[in-house]
Amino acid sequence: MESGKQLSGTLALAVFTAALGSLQYGYSLGVINAPQRIIERHYSRALGVLPQNLTRSNDTEEEELHPSVVMYWSLSVAIFSIGGVASSFLVGFVGDLRGRIKGMLMINVLAITASLLMGLARMGPPHLMVITGRAVMGFYCGLSSGLVPMYIGEIAPVAYRGALGTLHQLAIVTGILISQVLGLDFLLGNDTMWPLLLGLSGAPAVLQTLLLPLCPESPRYLYIKLGKEEEACKSLKRFRGEYDASKDMAEMKKEKEEAMKEKQVSIITLVCSSAYRQQLAVALMMHLSQQFSGINAIFYYSTSIFLKAGVSKPVFATIGVGVINTIFTMVSVLLVDRAGRRTLILIGLGGMCCCAVAMSVGLVYQATFSWMSYVSMSAIFLFVCFFEIGPGPIPWFIVAELFSQGPRPAAIALAGCCNWTSNFVIGMCFPYIEALCGSYVFIIFAVILLGSTVFTYCRVPETKGKTFEAITAEFQRRRRHRQVPPDAKAATELHHLKSSSEA
């Protein structure tokens, strides 16, 4: 058997088990939207501001909400991202404290606690129960969204690292889709069942808790972090079957030797060190381009566009967007180790840029030409397709590929914080930007996407099929090339560029 290319049942189980954390993240992202009006009504009743003549949930949509209800609802949505931002800095600490497996087991206590708080919301003030549950769940998801890609990236064979890494995003979009379907009025998104709908967000954590003890620890963690060579070798063979592990062990040994030459890399060291500056710029830009691409704004705006297009049940059209989301993430799983990361990101960002322009044209001329609403609808579906081909899944696992074992936890924590913070900024600011710019709002995203495409073309390397050592070496060569020009011509050009910039 060829080293590093084996896919075993144990590896499949470990990846599936880890990805349950991502499924829970996606479910928690999407679950709060469908029952909004119903939950607001319960908030109004608990706060004593529900008009006595309101007896049907439909009336809530027409009634102007009390400012305190609006505040508590906004907090219910936003607190999730705030929790994620707060905990994302702890990913490296939790992952290194007791290992990747025990780290994921430990944080499941948070998820189960959060689901109980939300599932039992009727037993206490619902606004306080839901807000507290969402805060704890956000704290869990901030940790999980870092630990899952870290673990999968460390256990995946080089040949399948991209495909297995993409499963993190596939699990997220699957979780969003499940929450959208269960949130339908005739299922759980109704006045009676909404606490169960929110409480089910902890179900994947229960299953993951049962399966994690069956999964081996990351060989890279065992060998590079703990120095347990024999246990790391056994773990490798459990993941990939009986094969000659000498090549993989030699790679880890070399990485360990490199890691021992440098001090423990903290987040502050990572930010200040010029040695990691290029990798860090690429990692952060990948996450910024993912969130500032406008994908969350598309989901925010899709129901309104579908309504203008004459769709009688826009909720089902939105679920259709979720289905497309999931399907094209599967396409990315199949393509990422064939076409390569850089290629798929470039195709995705470029396609999204064109779709954002088409969206703007459709919105501007929708009132003039009725058929323009279908241009807007098509742009939504294509925008989501291009997002899930590359910019959606790849940033989550490419960070683990760009950094060696030493700075990897800190890098993943910093990238996760960047992702959560930008997600929060978009969620809070988009309604105001949309009110200010109107139909031209997606031109802003088109400009951002164009800039992201240029950056990716110029700065992002291809990591397909390369070992962590080879990727690190490529960045080191780039840094040396920038610091010491290879010949006199390069030195002259550099001097000329410097002079031009100072002029």
TrEMBL record:
<keyword id="KW-0472">Membrane</keyword>
<dbReference type="GO" id="GO:0055056">
    <property type="term" value="F:D-glucose transmembrane transporter activity"/>
</dbReference>
<feature type="transmembrane region" description="Helical">
    <location>
        <begin position="410"/>
        <end position="433"/>
    </location>
</feature>
<dbReference type="InterPro" id="IPR045263">
    <property type="entry name" value="GLUT"/>
</dbReference>
<feature type="compositionally biased region" description="Basic and acidic residues">
    <location>
        <begin position="490"/>
        <end position="503"/>
    </location>
</feature>
<feature type="transmembrane region" description="Helical">
    <location>
        <begin position="105"/>
        <end position="125"/>
    </location>
</feature>
<dbReference type="GO" id="GO:0070837">
    <property type="term" value="P:dehydroascorbic acid transport"/>
</dbReference>
<keyword id="KW-0813">Transport</keyword>
<dbReference type="GO" id="GO:0005903">
    <property type="term" value="C:brush border"/>
</dbReference>
<dbReference type="InterPro" id="IPR020846">
    <property type="entry name" value="MFS_dom"/>
</dbReference>
<dbReference type="InterPro" id="IPR036259">
    <property type="entry name" value="MFS_trans_sf"/>
</dbReference>
<dbReference type="InterPro" id="IPR005828">
    <property type="entry name" value="MFS_sugar_transport-like"/>
</dbReference>
<dbReference type="GO" id="GO:0005886">
    <property type="term" value="C:plasma membrane"/>
</dbReference>
<keyword id="KW-1133">Transmembrane helix</keyword>
<feature type="transmembrane region" description="Helical">
    <location>
        <begin position="439"/>
        <end position="458"/>
    </location>
</feature>
<dbReference type="InterPro" id="IPR005829">
    <property type="entry name" value="Sugar_transporter_CS"/>
</dbReference>
<feature type="transmembrane region" description="Helical">
    <location>
        <begin position="194"/>
        <end position="215"/>
    </location>
</feature>
<comment type="similarity">
    <text>Belongs to the major facilitator superfamily. Sugar transporter (TC 2.A.1.1) family.</text>
</comment>
<feature type="transmembrane region" description="Helical">
    <location>
        <begin position="164"/>
        <end position="182"/>
    </location>
</feature>
<feature type="region of interest" description="Disordered">
    <location>
        <begin position="479"/>
        <end position="503"/>
    </location>
</feature>
<dbReference type="GO" id="GO:0046323">
    <property type="term" value="P:D-glucose import"/>
</dbReference>
<dbReference type="Pfam" id="PF00083">
    <property type="entry name" value="Sugar_tr"/>
</dbReference>
<feature type="transmembrane region" description="Helical">
    <location>
        <begin position="315"/>
        <end position="336"/>
    </location>
</feature>
<feature type="transmembrane region" description="Helical">
    <location>
        <begin position="70"/>
        <end position="93"/>
    </location>
</feature>
<keyword id="KW-0812">Transmembrane</keyword>
<feature type="transmembrane region" description="Helical">
    <location>
        <begin position="343"/>
        <end position="365"/>
    </location>
</feature>
<feature type="transmembrane region" description="Helical">
    <location>
        <begin position="280"/>
        <end position="303"/>
    </location>
</feature>
<dbReference type="InterPro" id="IPR003663">
    <property type="entry name" value="Sugar/inositol_transpt"/>
</dbReference>
<feature type="transmembrane region" description="Helical">
    <location>
        <begin position="131"/>
        <end position="152"/>
    </location>
</feature>
<feature type="transmembrane region" description="Helical">
    <location>
        <begin position="371"/>
        <end position="389"/>
    </location>
</feature>
<feature type="domain" description="Major facilitator superfamily (MFS) profile">
    <location>
        <begin position="14"/>
        <end position="464"/>
    </location>
</feature>
<protein>
    <recommendedName>
        <fullName>Major facilitator superfamily (MFS) profile domain-containing protein</fullName>
    </recommendedName>
</protein>
